Amino acid sequence: MVEQKMAAHIAQRFFITGMNDEDLGEKVILIVEGKESDLQQAFTALDKYEIPKEVYFINSFEETHTKKVDKRSTLERLFRK
Predict the structure, then answer these.
(1) Which residues contact 57 (CB under 8 A, 6 or more apart)?
(2) 36-61: per-residue pLDDT in tens?
(3) Do 42 and 17 contact (CB within 8 A), yes or no?
(4) Number of other CB atoms surrounding residue 46 within 10 Å
(5) Is residue 70 a contact partner of residue 61, using CB atoms and an 8 Å limit?
């Protein structure tokens, strides 16, 4: 539902997921494909508790063999240090 609200305001591909957090238990994060941009307009459509706590940008998403976004592989690549 949150992704649907944001889709009208974000031109790039994106997805929302949860991430472990010491204080919150789990926090909502937004992963956007492409160059960093201002997304404040997209957040105006969301309720207070729907707004992602962090936003990450990645050049390109990993994809499955059927060309769908592979969220797990994308997150692994993003947070591999």
Answers:
(1) 31, 32, 33, 34, 35, 36, 37
(2) 988 888 898 899 889 999 999 999 99
(3) no
(4) 16
(5) yes
Which residues touch 29 (CB under 8 Å, ≥6 apart)?
16, 17, 18, 19, 52, 53, 54, 55, 56
pLDDT tens figures, 6-36? 998 898 999 999 999 888 788 999 999 999 9
**Which residue, 21, 80, 77, is CA-closest to 53?**
21
In the chain, the amino acid numbered 45 is A
Please tell me the distance from the alpha carbon of residue 67 to that of residue 14, in angstroms, as a whole number. Answer: 14
